[in-house]
Amino acid sequence: MNRKKILLPITLSLVVAFHLPAAAQIAGRAGVSAIPTGPGAAGPALNFALTPQQLQQRYQTATAQLDSALAGIAAIKPEDVTYANTVLAYEQATASWQREMYPIGFLTAVSVDPAQRQAAAELEDQMETYGVSLGHREDLYRQFERAAAKGEKLSALDARLLEDTVKSFRENGFALKSEEREKLKAMQERLGHLGNAFGRNIAESKDWLEVGAEGVKGLPEDFVSGLERTADGKYRIALNEASYGTYMRYAESAESRKSLLMKWQNRAADANLPILKEALGLRRDIAQLLGHKGYPEMTLKDRMAETPEKVMSFLSRLKDVVLSRARADLAEILEIKRRAEPDASQVFAWETGYLSRILRQERYDLDGEKVKEYFPVDRVVEGTMKVYQKTLGLSFREMKDGPRWHPDVRLIEISDAADGRLIGHFYLDLYPRDGKYTHAAAFTVIKGRRLEDGTYEKPASAMVANFPKAAPGKPALMPHSEVETFFHEFGHLMHQTLTKVPYASYSGSSVARDFVEAPSQMLENFVWERSVLDELSGHYKDGATLPDDLYKKMLAARSFQDGLGYAGQLGLGMADMVLHTVVPEDVSAVFNKVMQEFTGLAPVEGTNRVASFGHLMGGYSAGYYGYLWSKVYAQDIYTVFKAAGVVSPEVGARYRREILEVGSGRDEMESLRAFLGREPSEEAFMRDVRGEPETPAPAVGSIGGAGLTPAQNHSEWNLGLSRRKWWNPLTWFQGLGKPSSDMTKRFEALMTLACEGAARMRAARSQA
Ligand SMILES: [Zn+2]
After folding, report:
1. Please, which residues have CB less than 5 A from ligand 1, an ion?
2. What ranges do the domains of the chain cover?
3. Average of pLDDT values for 385-392?
4. CATH classification of 47-202 is 1.10.600.10, yes or no?
5. Averaged over 36-40, what is the pLDDT?
6. For residue 16, what are the CA distances in angstroms to 318, 439, 441, 742?
7. pLDDT for 718 beyond 60
8. In what helix (H) or strand (E) does residue 210 lie, and over which residues does it extend?
9. Is residue 171 among the annotated active site residues?
C-alpha cells in the first residue's frame, strides 16, 4: 500500500522545479494588479521579523510544549489508552510544533537578513536531530501499539492515521536490540547532516571561467555587457545556471564551452564525492539493519511504484524509444557540426546546446527574443491568476497589509468563488535577491489542518522564484519556458492551499514523491493552448496578444529535441537507482557509465557531474524516476481538460475536489480514478515520449459513481484494472517469454556493466 507517513516531517514541504532561473536584473518594481486589493483581514498569523534570539525562543517554547504533550501521551495507563488520547493526540501535538517550525525553516530560503538566515539554518539542524530522536521514543511506540490492539471502530481516515503511525514507528527499528537501535539513530543523524552539507557545498562552490574576446564571440550583447571584467580585460563567466545555459547555447568557441562544462560538472566535487559515497553506504546500512534488501526497497514501498523492480521496468521500457529518438536528435545536430568539420563522427556534450540552438533557429525560424516580448512578467502573473480562478472556481484578492519578508513580496487571499469562504493565502516572491533560494519552488508555510476547537487552520504557501525584474526603460520579459515554470509552480501553490484534509500529515501536497509533481506537470500543458495564451500574453508595448504565426512556430518547435531531453531524465532516474542499489566504490564512474548507457552521450572525461546532482541528497534519493512516473498521470489527467476545452470550470471543480483537496487522505490511485472516472491510462504519456501528435482523449466514464467504467485502452502497456495488476510486470511484456526474469537479467547486466566500468576506471586511476 502506498503510505508515507513520516515520523516527523521536519524538512520543508517543498516542491522544486529545476528550471533555469532568469538572469538577475535589479531595479524598481512595476506591477499593475488586475485583481482587487484591499485592507481586509489581517492575513496569515506569521511574523518574519523575528530576531535570532526570538527564533531560538520560539523553537524552545514549541519544543517544550511538544515534549510535555508527548510526556502526557506516554503517561496514560495502558488500560486507558485510546486512539484519540495517543495517536490522534500525537498527530495534533506534532502538527502544532510544525506550525512553528515551518516558517522558521522557510526563512533559510528567503530571509533578507544573513544573521536571521544563519539562525534559522542552525535551528533547522536542531529540528533534524530532534526529529530523529522522536522516532526512537519507545514509550510512544508502545502506546501506539496498545491503541492499535484495542481495535476501536474508526473512520477510514482515522484508521489510516492509526495504521500509518504505528507502522512508521514499528519500521524504525523497534524490533532491534538496544545497541543496534543506538547505531541506527547515530546513522540517521549522520545522514541528515551529510545531506545539509551536500547542499551547502553546491550552493557555496564559487568558481568562474575567464575568457578573452574570442571566448565571448556569438553571445548576446546584453549578456556580454553584463559580464564581470578582470584587471587585464578578460571576461568572467560565472558558474550559475542562467549564465551557464546561455554560454553553452551561444558561445562560438567550442574549446571555451568545454572548459566551462568541465568546471560546471566539477562543482563541489572534492567535498561532495566522499559525502555521497558515505551517504549511499549509510542508506544501505540503515535499510539492511531495518530488514530490507537495500535502500530502494525500503523507500519505494511507500511510493506509488512500490518496488525497485517496477521502477527499473518502467525506466528500461522507455529506454529503447527514448534512445532511438535521442540518437536521431544527435544525428541531426551532427549534420550542423559537419558544415565546419566534414569528417566529424560524433557530437560531444559541450556541443549539444550550441548546435541545437542553431538547428532550432534554422528549422523553425523561431526567435525566442521575439516571443519574450509578448510575456511581460506582470501580464503573465495576472493572466495566470485569472486562468486559475476561473478553472478552479476561486477568487483572489491582493492584501495591502499582512506579514511579509520583503517589500516586493505579494500576499494574496484565496476565497471560494461560489460561497465567499476564506480558504487560505499565498505569497509571490518572484525576483532575485542576494542570499535567496536560486531555483523556482513552492513552499508550504502553514499546513492546513483541523484545530482542536474544530476550526480549520488556513493554509499559507509561497512561490519563490527568480524571474527578471523590470528596470526603467527595460521591461521584465519572460521566455516561454519560464511562463511554463510559473504556471507549474502556481499549480503547487493550489495543491498546498486548497486542501481540506483534517490532519496535517495528509494535507496539501504531502502525497507520494512519485505523484507530487503530477498536478503541476499536468498544468504545464495549459501554456501551450491558444485560449490560455490569450490570457497570459500581451506585448509589452501595445498589449497585443501572441500573434498566430508566432504561436504556430512555437507549437511546431514544442517537441524539438525532446529525445535528448527525455534521455537526460531517463539517465538521471536510472543512475539514481543504480547508485542506491550498487553502492559503488567509485560513485562518479558508475554515474557516468549509466548516463552514457541511457542517453547515448559520452560524459566528458575528468568530470564529476554527480557531485552537484542535488536531488540525490535532497529528498529524491531513489526517487528521481518520479518526474517521469508522475508525468504518466499528468498527461492522462490533461486529456480530460483538453476534451472539455481546457479552461473548464466543470472539470476544474472535479479536479479540485478529487485531486487537490484530498491530499494523501486516501491513496493517490483512488483519487485518480475518482477524477478520471476510469482507470488511468499511459497512452497520452507514451504518445509524448514517442513524439506522436495528439489523438482524441480516452472516453470518460461515469464520474464519481460506484460504477467506474473500464478504460477504453488501446495500449500494450495498460495501467488498467487495479494497481496490483497494473504493476505486475507480467502484464507488460506479453510475448517476451518470462518477462520478469528478462527484466532482472537486463538489470543485472546493467549493474555488471556499471561495476566493471567503475573497476576499470579505478585501475586506470591507480596506474596514473
Ligand atoms: Zn514541481
Report:
1. 15, 17, 517, 520
2. 47-202, 209-254, 627-731
3. 97
4. no
5. 57
6. 24, 8, 4, 35
7. no
8. strand 208-211
9. no
